[in-house]
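User: I'm curious whether this sequence folds into something compact or stays loose and floppy. Could you predict its structure so I can see for myself?
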Amino acid sequence: MGGLRSGWPGGSGLVRGVGAVVLSLGVMAAATGCGSSSSGSDGSKIVVRMSAPMSGTAAVYGQIAMGFEAFMKAQNDEGGIGGFPIDLKVIDNVESPDGGATTMLSLLADKPDVVAIVGSTPTQASLQVVKAKKIQTPVFAASNAGVVGDSGVKNAYGMNTDYLEECYYDTQYLIDKFHAKKIALVYEDDPVAQKEGTDCPAYGKALGVDVTAIPVSATTTDFNSIAAKVKATGAQAAQIYGLDALSASVIKASSSIGFNPQWMTFSGTSYDSFIKLAGAQGEGILVSSWMVPIDSQSAEADRFHAAMKKYYPQADNYLGAQGWTLAALAAYNLQKGIEANDGKIPSAEQLNEIIGQMNLPDGIGMSGGKMVYDGSASPVKELSVLQIKNGTLVTVAPPAPMPTAVP
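Assistant: Here's the prediction. I'll summarize afterward.
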């Protein structure tokens, strides 16, 4: 999901902060056993802690953290949340299980009011720590909502879709729009995507359509053989779920052997990076999305672009918009919690109760369709369809509900 670490203002340290003392990961880990001076318990500030992939193979997704931090900085510029300043630190989780678990232990040492995580793999490991330690702190995650739901952690709140439900939506769209009778489903073969490989074909079968699942190892370099498998299905349309480089490589290899089905990819792509990697072969590819196009006109879009240009211009894109929206979700719920608690920062238990009852306003952050926290792992209830045209994304289908189960 390459190397943004050096792009963060402040150099190559593992931790970035807003109104916070910046510590190395090793120092923070040591602090786990002896307490920390930064704490949400004094009621004078809102302590927000985040882990995100800022280095390694998934470093491009560190731009989500930049969007998150830009929102919180802009919020501080405007007086904080509910009148309280925001104390934010971001730590590198390297998009790995060990990184997820280690950073969660470090972040919890600061007794945060809210924790945010970027990346499905570190989310999975982080939530195991939360569950084992019976932590009640609300955790907002930019990851496959299926990972959040499977964790069984009630105080974990996804932002992205459940990718399996999104696969149902994409399948339905390709059937309705293109009358596809055969669909190839290419997916990165890891625990995050394996449900798509088993359950999405069952969804197609229930609708009388042949969906052929084709797993791809994240380490593969033989994309021609994958393209040959896709072509052998005789599919009129193809879905692809994977990191940008993998997806773009499969699509290019398919085109090189003269097979060009209608491709559709998912909201977990980084959009801008994917478009660049796909090049000319990206033209016409469909993308399901819970966000509005980046060039949408609204007061919130103007605020987003202004803050990104001020703080992280390199992330004034779809990934930055995801982080901005994740921060907007956390901030909205914190604001409501403060209002319900007579102007004081609520406890974790109070905040969880409020989040569980939260109907979110239309257009929160850079979101598009309906979003509701109703006990499910993701607030996203609707997706729209975007299409790559002339190197940018345009809306071709308005928000519509996602199927949640096989018919």
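Summary: The longest helix spans residues 318-340. The domain at 163-290+383-401 is CATH 3.40.50.2300 (Rossmann fold).
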